[in-house]
Amino acid sequence: MIERIIIRGYRLFQDFEIEPDKGLNIIVGGNEAGKSTLLEAISIGLTGRANGRWAEEELNPYWFNQRVVADFFAELKIGNSPTPPEILIELYLNGENPDTHILRGVHNTRVEDAAGVQVRIKPSVDYAKEFDDYLNDPARPDIIPVEYYNLEWQNFAGATLHRRPKHLGVSFIDSRTIRSTWGVDYHTREMLSDFVETKERASISVAHRSARHTISETALAEVNKRITEEGTRLHDRNLGLQMDQSSGASWEAGVVPHVDEIPFALSGQGQQAAIKVALAMNRSASSTSYVLIEEPENHLSHTSLTRLVARIEDLAGDRQVFMTTHSSYVLNRLGLDKLRLIHGGKPTAFSEISDDTVRYFKRLSGFDTLRIVLADKLVLVEGPSDEMLFERAFRDKHNQKPIEAGIDVLSMSGVSLARALELSAALNRKVAGIRDNDGKPPAHWEEKVAQHLQEGVRQLFIGDPTRGNTLEPQLIHCNNEKIIRSLLLIKDSSKATIDWMSEHKTEAALLLAESKTPVKFPDYLMAAVEFVE
Amino acid sequence: MNQATLAVAGSRKTQSIVDACTNGEIGVRRLVVTYTQSGQAELESRLRSSCEPGTVPRVIGWFAFLLQHCIGPYLPLQFAEQRLSGLNFHGNPPRGRYATGASRFFDSEGRAYRIHLSKLAYDVSNASRGAVVNRLANIFDEIYIDEVQDLTGCDLHLVAQLMEEPDLDVYMVGDVRQSVFDTNPQDPNLRQYRGVNMLDWFELHQTTGLLDVQHNVKTWRANQAIATFSDTLFPSEFVFEPTVSMQNETTDHDGVFALSEPDVPAYILQHSPQLLRNSISTVCALELPIHNFGKVKGLTFDRVLIYPTKSIINFLVDGTELAPKTACGLYVAVTRAKYSVAFVLPKPSDTALTHWGESNSPERASTT
User: Fold this and answer.
1) Residues A101-126, buried b or exposed e (16+ Cβ, 10 A)?
2) Fewer beta carbons under 10 A from the terminal one: N or C of chain A?
């Protein structure tokens, strides 16, 4: 298993280090956080390949961290001679599997006795002069000349690798579906080839060749005869047509997987993703110790995703799985404890989430935990009516919606506030928790979740019980009741305002939130608005 | 348990490694280390033809073993910035014995000098604080070392470290009487175990219980006459059990002979022996293919004809004891032959050997 990953100078990662967990690692982050880049880097380290081709052939200037590159050219401009940008990817393996010891040594940046592989992309010694000339050319663009770079792929014993080490089998399931003439992408093809034994391979090849030969001898023979008769001659030699027997026309290119009689590439994208996962997980654990899955939720309906996630969980076994996702469902279902959070090319450390809470969210897997995970500032409210009114209060004060100010207002809809607070505390998020007092003083509620609260960071905002148990009486208390009644269009004069509001909670909130007349909000709500701004 | 089998020439030592690998437990990870380049190719093909596919052990030369498994992985612990690009087989550090630090071990291209390779490997192993041995013990269960007699000095220190590792069994085969090469002639370490004196080293580790030493005196190549003669080559201070020949074939010319220079053409015409000499400096008038003693290890010939050095002549004439190193070389030469060994001497009749050519009649020849 990979116990440490170090990435330097690669795309978003200026200096990145993470210690992944043994089994599942669910990588979560906002857009541009580096989730896919992390999977790519792992794949390059394990296989020496990127996008199915040798990494050295795929190398391009955009692999380099743009910040590092910008700094380099800036330094150069003011006459310094900075170190040219380099890329480093290191995967440290633990020694559990004795077979990985062949990769063991101290050739890593930590000079630590460990098994592992290293990819280093740096200026080639052979092109030192050309590289220098390039840098000194006044007309050059601020782009790294990758032509003068080379890629060294070696193990920690210091030996150069030319092919994937035997025990670093990896399956990469990316969500990008390539409808190429090959029908399937490189990774899928590799997985499929596991099904074909060497002997079968040879016999397919022979049959394929003789079938081609037969076509040449029969169908094409007629054509060739006619061409000859018509006297088409080229340079005094006969022109004829034959089936291609060169290696480019090998059977692999002509064989594509079918799903229920439909070519793989033409089956649904969801279907493709599901098949890729199944293929990856069915490979023997010895041939794939590592599985990389990119956003499995893509193209899948909720029911298919449910099946797929269950399958991933069942089959993961001894494998180490790295999975990126944007789906709270995937995260909750597979366990919040598997969460690896990255942000802006850096891993975000957070404290442990209790097993109890992990289990809680596994059950309530529909809850949008990712909003807690990814938000900068959070307002947790009890239900939709609180959500609408908080938003209105915020808009009145700041002339913009909370979300525009980077504040996510999340309606708990029955999910325990304490659990959400625990998660927020573990992630160290700024949270305003707004709840009804239900007839008890605020201190009563604060005491229950005291361990997750922190002055100025996570606080509860609760109305004074003498002004009513819930938001509705609190609203009546701080506004002119007549205006409220008119805004809510209550026509039945025998109906008490509070009763109508309690019976039509959401409708009342909607009407107040959208009213043109200003509405006053209770103090605790305003305190929450002030707290998060 | 570590084991050393010290065996006479022609006792199928290399075959014993092939057999151990072929018949050994399945799933045991084996590494076979051998000293000579030709030995390596030969071993590899023999192992490939006798082991099940997939169970063929890895075969590696001794220098490659030191570079890949002892030096390479942990070199930064000894010389932090030193790169290792290969082996400098013939070179010497420019400052010779006075070279210090990395320049003693590496040329400017990052190639390690062969002459200091074992010392470097031993230093790196020590700097790794056991990691070199631990790593090997994780990769392999058994290490076989062929031609163990050619290891010296720091090589032996390293082998001792391997033997001390409980998770690793070291099997060595060799014949100290054939120690014509040293992997490292300049190594001052363990000088007392040079050449035939290596017997003491085996004995030392046998006493401490680290090593089980077996002796094998059966030869499948030389006939008894040649085998018995080969036993006489070593100074009396070395006690070897008499060699027993399992080769009972007879021809019209069996045994050990002496002949004079003028008879050589006739002898060659009649018996087609392989010509051998101690080294290039031994005078040989004939323009025929001739091999040095050091190059024929492991080879078999029906008959050999030897051009002796002065000290060998003295030994044959009046029994003057040979220097151990010369004795080793001669032992290799003599034990190449299946049927006959002949020496070209100024006065053949001065020796106790059968004089060939007095009447050019093969009938007169008999075993000594």
Assistant:
1) bbbbbbbbeeeebbbbbbbbbbbeee
2) C
